Amino acid sequence: MNTRRQFLGGAGVAAAAVTAGSVSRAALAALPEAVVQTGAGTQPPLLPPTGRPYRPVVTLNGWTLPWRMNGGVKEFHLVAEPVVREMAPGFRAHLWGYNGQSPGPTIEVVEGDHVRLFVTNRLGELTSVHWHGQRLPNGMDGVSGLTQPGIPPGKTFVYEFVARRAGTFMYHPHADEMVQMAMGMMGFWVTHPKDRHPLIDPVERDFCFLLNAFDIEPGSATPRVMTMLDFNLWGWNSRIFPGIDPLVVRQGDRVRLRVGNLTMTNHPIHLHGHEFLVTGTDGGPTPRAARQPEVTTDVAVGQMRQLDFVADEPGDWALHCHKSHHTMNAMGHGVPTMIGVDHSGLARRIGALVPDYMVMGERGMKDMTEMAMPLPDNTAPMMAGRGPFGPLGMGGMFSVLKVRPDQPPGDYRDPGDYRHPPGSVAYEFTGSLPEPLRPTAAEAPAPGTAGQVELRVRKPGGGHAGH
Ligand SMILES: [Cu+2]
């Protein structure tokens, strides 16, 4: 189905591909060069220059690692190292990753490929790489202490195996993994089918991203690595909205989303305007009889999900985690709920002492998207992003699927805001409002009965864990 010509058709976009970032060559001549990416923008798909053809994936705010062929073996070079990752405009985090970025580059191979991966450790401690979901010799599984010694700082280890199963996979350390994953060490892996696969349908656009979580105090840059549940930044590929690029498709495209979860909690991923089928997991393609239409699918910890749909509805469609706290950025966790509290007098009195003091939230917290509140340096606003109708009030795990009838095939450039056909946008009702129907005194429950009880519920303060 996928012919060489189709790939070449998209070559114009890919011409500026991965090499656009600055490229450094490994000093060690025997190793494949370590390609380094310096930016956080989504790179065009890397059309395979050698080996079997396939339709490459697009890594959201990421890139695919180039390889070299060496005697029929596909060779890659990963470098584990400290990186500076721009998580959103104006907010740079000091993370650990691979080849200049967190997450590391996506590795794309073809079912049956003999793969050799050189892993150089430029961290200050041992590391290893586990190839999540792969069938491989036990000694290549990357569990330090169990299947190999950890890779010492400054050393390079070689992993070698055949990519036996087509599908959606990832890689991450299995050495001091609580710290190393909290610091952002992870990457995507896609094994494309060798021929037409009975359970893997061809698609026109194929996007992938990893779910990740960080705990970075406002005003600082390094994640707290001991955090177990109370993370304050929820990311896709170490980016937070509005730093996450849109997913741009042409109307009618068959689209695949591949998602992997390396956080400490589950994420129900929700798509607006379309139904999708879960067509695969890290365990392999889902049997057709087991696929059901969904608009939300939960991606549990350590799981991967592959979602297929036809993008046949034009528009700007939200794609997000359905846990509402995961579509916000860093906030103070001790903020009390102030809805319904009139504290204007209090604000006036505190304002006399603290000139910049602002009280927030008596009508809800949406106001915070409008205010230019002074933030500590290097802090992402809690909710941000502007659309054609105003502020979005979103952060974290949120992006937009942009479906356009005139988007050229293979073109991933942002087409701008959707232009709605006349009369197709929700509008204000301007007639007179009738009085709501309420029960009469005779119908109302008698005083003191259950119907009269008004509960005053107070959210527990302080603790904000478990989300
Ligand atoms: Cu979530």
From TrEMBL:
CDD domains: CuRO_1_2dMco_1 (cd13860), CuRO_D2_2dMcoN_like (cd04202). Residues 1-29 form the signal peptide. GO terms for cellular component: periplasmic space. The keyword Repeat does not apply. Residues 458-467 have a biased composition (Basic residues). It is found in: Periplasm. One of its GO terms (molecular function) is copper ion binding. Residues 431-467 are annotated as: Disordered. It comes from the Bacteria. Residues 91-194, 222-335 form the Plastocyanin-like domain. Its main location: periplasm. Residues 439-451 have a biased composition (Low complexity). Keywords: Copper, Metal-binding, Oxidoreductase, Signal. This is Multicopper oxidase. It comes from Piscinibacter sakaiensis.
